[in-house]
Amino acid sequence: MLIRILYTLLLALASPFLLFGLYKSKPNKPKFGQRWKEHFGITPKLEATERPIWIHAVSVGESIAAIPLIKELEKQNPTQPILVTTTTSTGAEQIAKLGELVEHRYMPIDFGFAVKGFLKATRPKQMLIIETELWPNTLRTVHDSEIPITVVNARLSEKSCKNYAKVQPLFNLLVPCLDKVLCQTESDAERFERLGVEKHKLFITGSIKFDIQISEEVKEKGKALRTELGIKRPIWIAASTHKGEDEQVLEAHKKILESHPTALLILVPRHPERFDNVFELCQKLGFDAARRTSQTEVTESTQVYLGDTMGEMLVLMGAADICFMGGSLVGDKVGGHNVLEPIALGLPVINGPSYFNFKDIVEEFRSLNKIHIIENSSVLAEQVTDLLRHSQIESNVTFDNNALHLTMTHIGNF
Asked: Catalytic residue among 38, 47, 50, 62, which?
């Protein structure tokens, strides 16, 4: 009890600084608006009469990892309400893509009163924590409310394990609250056990983060588009580009055309309101450009194909040989975008130096040589050309679909 009191006092002192970082305005960062109150347990009630399954995914990476699990839960029981909490607004943006499949709320900060207010408004029957977001007061309050807690896709690096060991008395408060810890690897399980989690609570399931399945329909549409654009010509895609990035990409394409005169760039701006401006930019810079919406025939002389439609990113990627992921060459304004989809399609991915929103994912695939990091746009053309020249087109990555099956098995009936 004394340890929890000391922890809560320290959290109270630190919370103004933590909240400042959370609410600090940044370009392209979604606003919390009036929903900031949810962080303090002032949470809108759920309309569903049945108690929801509560999934907590702190930010972007965890939200992406949660999506296959959410879809599988819905598949097994379409009437089961699913509540997803995130701490950050960028995480909320990812969850918003699921539409009416889930309800979203912001996670209350780790004060007992805030968590109690949240539980009263939402009445969850089970809590699933994605990866390792363990907060003492939250876990204790949820546990005392007789709500089972499972850590899904759990990971614990050696560095994090040693850091937790430094505050072992605090970690000891967490252990009795956890019902199951579903670990990505044996090493993760061994570290949790070293910190005191009982062996019978530990299970190895693999990582659900990479459980991505691209439908055959999407693949076939990608192949059809490739046939339309040109089977033999080199094609690369710049996906989800931001203002200030299009110029850099188009400059790189000019250099690529010097060594590959028939190369085609599929340019897909992130925001639809920029489609017209980007097309005008292509024309201003002297490119022979075509828009997907115009349905103009693409010939061998076409140099840029503007992807100005919504919901077709995977199809457009499926027609390309290489993918440059946007949001990574505009300083620290954006922090990159999700690279899992082009990797699942078998494309080598080029990423700029800014990818803090997807750091873990990028670093993991970088170590497997599936992602190539460039320091600035001046080497973008060189990297694309090198990949084309050496035909380093990767085969499709085999994602561990068994991880999701094992995870669902251990979650149990709901």
From this structure: 62
